[in-house]
Amino acid sequence: SDSVMDGDRTIRHGILIDYEIQVQETVQSVLYEPQSDKVALLHSEGCCLYQESCLKDNFFLDSNFNNLLFAEQHGVYVGVSSHHLTLMNANFNIIYEAKSDTEILSSTFNHCSGHVITSSPGKLTVWMFRQGAKVITPSYTVDDGLSPSDEIHNLHLEDVPGRAQRSFAGVGCGIKIFLLEEGKMIMDLKNIHMHPITVTHFFRPLGFLITGAKDGAIKVWNNLWQLQWTFIGHCGPVTAISSFCYGPMIVSSSLDATIRVWNLHMQDQIEVIQHAFPIQALHCKPGNYSFLSYSKKMVTVWKVRKLYSQTAIIGHKIEFLTRTNHPMVPLRVVVISRNSVRIVSPIGGNVITTALLPLETDVTSVAYLPCEEKLFVLEKSGILTLFNCKDNPCCKELQTTQSELGIITSVAVYELFMDEEDIEDMLEEDRWLAVAVQAQKYSHVKSKEDPLSKEKQGTSLLLAGTKKGYLLVLDYKSGGANFSVKAHNDAVSLIACNPNKDQVISTSTDNVVQIWRLYPHSKEVLSLIMSFCAASTPCLMTTTQERLCIAWNKPELATYSIDVYSFCDFACFTGDPESNHDDCITCLDVYRKLRLFVSASDDKTIRLWTQDNQLLRIIQLDYAVQGLVFCSLQGDLMIGLHNHLHVISHALYFSESLMNQLITMQFPDSCEESQKDISAKVSCLTPEDLQRLELVDDTIQQGSYHGALSQEEINSLEKAATEKAHAIFLLQKQKEELLNIREGLLTSSKKHSVSMRAKDREQTWQNLFQILHPKSDLNISIPEEDDCTSDNYGAPLKHSRRSSNFFPLLASFNPPYPIAPDGFLPNSRMLAEFRKTEEDWKLAEEWEPPKLTLKQLQSLENQEEEEQEDEENSERDSELLTRLHDALYAAHSSESSSTPTPPPSPPEPVVRHITPHKKIEKLVAPKAAPKPIPKEKTPPPFSKSPSPPPPPPTPLPEYIAQFIGETWFDKLFPNPDSKTFPPPWTVNKFINILLVQLSKPMNYAMKAGICSGIEKLMQQHDDSCNKDVAYKAVTKELTTPPLLSLQNKEESVFISQALKVIFSTHHLDSTMAPLLAKYYSEGTVNLQQGIMNYFTSLGINDPHGYFAKELKKSCSATSETKFSEWFSQWAEKLMDSKSSKRQQLYDMQPKRKVLKNVSSKGERNTSSKLKVTFKPTAPSYNPIDVVNYFVSVEHENELARNRVPTPPTPEPPPSVQKDRIPCNTVIALPKLNPVPVSLVRLGETHCSLCHPERETSLSLVHRHVAANKPRSTASFSHSLALALKPQYLNPFLTQEEQIEEELQGGDKYKSVSSIMKYFVPEHSYVKSDP
User: For residue 294, how many C-alpha atoms fall within 13 Å in the half-sphere facing its CB?
Assistant: First the structure.
């Protein structure tokens, strides 16, 4: 299933917590190695070593160190205290201790030279390791430019090797720069900050110096010591600055408990991480996607997730992206910037060609024909320019504007191409074309022209919309309009094409969406199918074969939503409001393979939607995306960020079910397109255009800055680089030669002799013998003929299979002679001595393993019998112990009981039968031994079965056991078992126990935990919970004086959890409603949204937000009494309104004649009339009815304010009436219920009597009928006969019906004057009177 929880469907780009380490002691210093994930933590009691968040070792140190350094060149630790430097090994055993004559203020390790640098008042000291890193001694000091009062508390070294390495020391509000090797100060920057400098950092890729001060300001200085930028964001002293893991970014920490990431190219902050404690320092290295920060009691390791990777460099700010869809052309992406349009290949990121526009040109829309290499660019001024994309840069061919039918506001391309099934059908009909295709397929001479090239390219139409509401089909060769139709009453804003259904969708600023049928080979190209009205103007639109996706931006309502419409049943799929974007939607695209939609917004998120408008995935980025398209057939996303294009792989955000669907699909191989050659017309361009044509690479390459090195050091670095390249070349050459030798492609130029001469062989043997036996008098000679086969040096080495290494594996090498276990192969002469003869092989075949004698077998059998008897004796002993235990237990029970029991009878003595061993008659005979006679076992006289073990305790049910481990549950129920919760167990009983605990005095954190548990139980067991009891108990806690306040942090947590319980009960009374209004005025945005959603679920119909506006007006008066008075006043108004309506209804009814009471004598009975009086009571009201009444009154008042009499529209002349295109009138609203329902279209139908040319046979069946009831306006028909299902509507109510509807409080009649401007047939049926 693709439906996942909110926490699971969101993936974030940026900094995430990897793990945390909490310590009891105060943290002094931390060392971090990201490659091995090792952490060395120095605290006040000692040092702890962690690896992958697990404690590996703990060391107790005698000295109190302030800082801990690690010298990786020597593999030793250096502990720094106020007056000592202590040298320690890997186990933190002290090797050497050096004393400083002055107080040490700060210290650091020089990774380039391997020295330790410390700062003291008025000087810097350089310490060197000696005697194999067993001793550390001061080498020299630097005091140039320093006075005895200068205290250096922060020291940073430039990460550059050589004598020109600089040291940056913060002294007060300035920076002093030293050359350590020369021992002198080269620069003194005074008063560069308003407050003392707390940290310095040198950003090597750009050569920038970055300083942070006590006031939280961060300043960036260039290599000329000029101020570049100032970053303001921290509210406390800056404690650390470091280069970020990637890109031109830095990361900083502060005592305000925040970590901030700054982009040096954007000159802005891009991410803020809020921490729980003030941060003392952080460690981050470029290239490692993890870093560490620590506070006094906690160490946090962060991981950096990078979702996107750079694929193309544009060099100019990207505005939006589009892509191609033609199957005959590789997928391309069109990148639109302010002054240029570039066509990019997604694979490789090569810019194929560029169209240069005039400066300060604002592009609104682009259409690209890849088959014909035509690019249409529409400017905001209405100028449409045609470019030929066959050259680089593109050549301008045509420029046009439509003045007669209005300025062009939007363009789109309709591409109708044939798929494989359509081509097969065409070949079956046209046999001559099929023969030509087969002839080209089997011909040896390949033709350049494909017989099906025109059919595969298909038909392309250029569609345009104008400011006067016309839709045009343009001829892109001449720029004229081949067809035009009046589509809208206002400017056309968007055009989308659906070639699979031959449909074109257009939208306008008049909030009307129209769907057209397109006939590409007809004179009348467009024909209207249907249209519907929307609440606002669509901002973006895209289509699949069966769905239409529209994005809406409503800033005045703070609503940014996406709706999906079905072309089949015209149903509307409205998504969950909680899944909508939080800011304006800027991008929208579709992935037709899996029928998915993707959107991007200014809220820095990318959201993936299904075709039913269900949210699948949220991708949280650190920037707002300027462009978004699917750039591959597998579903990869290409996004535009600032001046570059980046790609997000589909494997990072696709769910498991989507990945399984991709596995079953086949995709053609994608090819990379290279950049087209620059044409000769470039010489005609201006220098500004040439600069725009070039791609500016503003990425930072690590190691590009080398610092101020001397010429000798530069020459040595170049020499080392040359020697390294030469060594790599020689190794590669040697590897190639070895590969050629293995394949037999290279032979030795020296010819080896096949055999030695006899004289040379004899002389060689004598020399070897004299070496081995110098004092021997033996004269041993070797034979003239060698029995061993000589080696074949000329034959190439052949292998049965090719191994991964150069030499074959030993297991695959199977020679005819044995191999030693260590892999040593003897030479031929020694091997001949060790070869086996045929007799040796026969002896080896006849060999058998040794066998046991009969005596040995018999002794084994006797040993088994003895072991069996010992087991029987042990069993009898265990039976005796059992009886003894039972007897003792019986005696104990008899002493404890009141009535004495007779003593147990003594057990009978156990008789043991001892049988002698069977005599062995023969030990040597090969016959089998006779079977022993089975022994009879005497049963024990008394045996008692052991008592059964007690039954295990009954486990607690799952709805109770799920809370074990939570803080509030463990404090309330320390030992949860069946005694703490006696059965029977039910959910209501457990909730009642929690409610009793809630009423007891305790801290609000415990009460918040109890409320969270009650809410969880009510969500899991919604049907079986007693919600009335929970509602009353929680309401009592909130309404008991003194009232709780959201300003208190502990009380606010309890209030939030208590409100969640109330929301789960779906109850509301007159006591809680004013309190909710009070919390709405005091609460945060999330709490206000939750309260308003709760009111809406209870039945409040407030689409225009009158109730929320009223509550916001009362934010200054946060007293509950104020809101209670407000509810009471509107309740009285509601009661008065209902009583007046009843009186009006009573007055409108016909009066009946009343017979006078006359006596038998003909006199009137003048007895007094019966009078009934009611005791006045306080008005009781339903808060939902009161709010709905308030909303209706506010809505009527707003309608009354907006009613302005409009003058009658003059009748148009007959000529204009002829040319006018009749349009259907649709009253609809795209947002309906989550379940798609059909809409009733009001207005002209195909059985309308207004247009006889549209008359069909349906008019004979569906006729206009008169009104069902007599109305006060009898001349007007109150019913409509529609060419749909027989549904009866009453949109125009009489005064009597309006009063009756308000009294009943229902939706009996659907009227045009109501708030809802749409009609649902299932809810609009009105029965006719009999």
Answer: 20
HEC secondary structure over 1254-1292: HCCCHHHHCCCCCCCCCCCCCCCCCCCCCCCCCCCCCCC
Confidence band, pLDDT 50/70/90 cuts, at residue 329: confident
Rounded distance between C-alpha atoms, residue 1035 and residue 1050, angstroms: 18
DSSP H/E element including 830:
helix 828-834
**Helix spans in 443-596 (H):** 453-457
pLDDT at 828: 55
Confidence label for 840 from pLDDT (cuts 50, 70 and 90)? low
Are 610 and 596 spatial neighbours (Cβ–Cβ below 8 Å)? yes
Distances (CA, A) of 470 to 380, 463, 482, 506: 17, 11, 13, 10
How far from each other are the two terminal CA atoms of the chain, in whole angstroms?
A: 52
Q: Which residues pair with 516 in a beta bridge?
A: 504, 528
pLDDT in tens, 1106-1129: 887 777 776 444 455 667 777 787
Position 398 scores a pLDDT of 84
Quick one: which of 252, 282, 250, 277 has its CA closest to 266? 250
Tokens in use for 292?
């560490």
**Which is nearest to 169 in space by CA: 141, 194, 197?**
197
In 3D, which of 490, 430, 499 has the Cα closest to residue 465? 490
Mean pLDDT of the chain: 75
Task: Give the H/E segment covering residue 717.
Answer: helix 711-743
pLDDT of residue 821: 52
> Two tokens at 58?
């703990």
Identify whether the C-beta of residue 569 lies closer than 8 Å to the C-beta of residue 559: no
Quote the tokens at residue 895. Answer: 């002493």
Residues 448-471, mean pLDDT to the nearest whole number: 74
Which residues, including other chains, have CB under 8 Å from residue 1111's CB and lie 6 or more apart?
1077, 1080, 1081
CA–centroid distance for 156 within its chain: 37
Q: Is 323 helix (H, G, I), strand (E, B) or coil?
A: strand
Enclosing H/E stretch for 851: none
Q: Which residue in the block uniquely carries the two structure tokens 């009658």?
A: 1208
Sign of CA dihedral 1117, 1118, 1119, 1124: positive
Asked whether the CA dihedral 687, 693, 698, 701 is positive or negative, the reply is negative
Residue 338 has pLDDT above 90, yes or no: no
Where do we find the tokens 């239409």? Answer: 548
**Phi, psi dihedrals of residue 643, rounded to the nearest 5°:** -110, 15
Cα distances (angstroms) measured from residue 334 to each of 206, 351, 551, 841, 1102: 32, 10, 21, 81, 44
pLDDT, residue 772, reads: 72
Q: Are 61 and 92 in contact (CB under 8 A)?
A: yes
CA 742 to chain centre: 51
Question: How many degrees, rounded to 5, is the angle at CA 143 between CA 138 and CA 146?
Answer: 140
Cβ 115 vs Cβ 106: under 8 Å? no
Is the separation of the CB atoms in 222 and 212 below 8 Å?
A: no
The candidate with the shortest Cα–Cα distance to 483, out of 545, 420, 526, is 526
C-alpha 849 chain-centroid distance: 69
Cα dihedral 821/824/829/834 (nearest 10): -10
The C-alpha atoms of residue 458 and residue 501 are separated, in whole angstroms, by 15
H helices of 76-201, where? none
Q: Which residue has the higher pLDDT, 771 or 307?
A: 307
CB atoms within 10 A of CB 1180: 9
Which whole number is the average pLDDT over 625-633?
91
pLDDT: which is higher, 524 or 788: 524
Residue 1322, pLDDT score:
47
DSSP 1164: B
Alpha-carbon Rg for the chain, nearest whole angstrom, is 47
How confident is the model at residue 706, as a pLDDT?
46
Entry field: residues in the chain: 1330
